[in-house]
Write a structure and sequence with these properties.
By secondary structure, the protein is of the alpha+beta class. Helices cover 28% and strands 23% of the residues.
Length: 204
């Protein structure tokens, strides 16, 4: 960590156009450096983050001395204003819902009836959110041809019910690239740990 320029480059490579917790960027930096999350190396990285904010190479909100409550991000481009709805790499992640019906069932339009559904998630190359939406609709509708199912040849179909989410991807697609994220409010530690899976649990 003696090479300030290399540390600058590393921190800036891990920062994003959207806000991230300062603690998250510090932790990712230490991980890349192979350093443990102890006060001394973490403090050096935090000091460097403050310097980058001071030189306007990063933007910050909140008290930077409070790593878990403050946030940092890359500044908006002076040429083109940052748009959180536009992917800088031209890729989007989108999800859609399909509903399974037996075509001869009289309750297919009953809003209180229960149906098997699939929510599928895809990535699409698109020029903007609208284009990504339209491409995802087209992909979903390719799955909706009726067919005869089961030994009795019952007429069935997957019906397209709509798009549930469209998100820009902000990083080039590569090993370890972040394509989706979710922020959760404060939860009890036992509930947080319940969500984590062991390696033996990830197989279907």
């Amino acid at each position: 960590m003696d090479d300030d320029q290399e540390l600058d480059k590393l921190i800036l490579s891990l920062a994003k156009p959207r806000w991230q917790k300062t603690a998250m960027v510090i932790a990712k930096t230490l991980q890349q450096l192979g350093a443990g999350y102890s006060d001394e190396p973490a403090g050096k990285v935090a000091k460097k983050v403050e310097q980058l904010v001071g030189s306007k190479r990063l933007e910050a909100q909140g008290d930077l001395s409070r790593w878990r409550s403050s946030e940092i991000r890359l500044p908006a481009s002076p040429v083109a204003k940052y748009d959180k709805n536009l992917s800088p790499v031209g890729w989007y992640v989108a999800s859609y819902i399909l509903r399974f019906v037996e075509l001869d069932d009289e309750d297919n339009d009953d809003l209180d009836a229960r149906f098997l559904t699939w929510e599928n998630t895809v990535i699409v190359k698109a020029k903007d959110m609208d284009d990504a939406y339209d491409k995802t609709v087209a992909i979903a509708k390719e799955q909706t041809e009726p067919y005869k199912g089961g030994a009795e040849g019952v007429p069935v179909q997957w019906l397209f019910e709509g798009i549930t989410e469209v998100l820009p991807i902000y990083e080039e697609l590569a090993d370890g690239a972040e394509i989706m994220w979710a922020e959760h409010g404060p939860r009890k530690l036992r509930h947080i740990r319940k969500r984590a899976l062991q390696k033996s649990e990830v197989r279907q």
